[in-house]
Write a structure and sequence with these properties.
Elements: E1 6-10, E2 16-21, H1 23-44, H2 53-64
Antiparallel strand pairs: 1-2
């Protein structure tokens, strides 16, 4: 399990109001959350919503040429 070294930030009455972590730990947590969300998205994807290769290429081309 990921060990999280943290520093508590307190207000004037010593009540915790925030937590500070190092950037490496934050980046690991961020990557884990992104991976989890992607896994959930993939598992919830409807397998009936698939494109043929030609349809996928046409869709991709429409995205590439779209002006924002």
């Amino acid at each position: 399990m990921l060990e999280i070294r943290k520093t508590y930030i307190t207000d004037s009455k010593k009540r915790p109001v925030a937590v500070q972590i190092d950037i490496q730990t934050f980046e690991k947590i961020e990557q884990l959350l992104e991976d989890y969300a992607l896994g959930q998205f993939i598992s919830e994807n409807d397998t009936n919503d698939t494109l043929s290769v030609a349809e996928a290429k046409a869709y991709y081309e429409s995205l590439v040429h779209k002006k924002y």
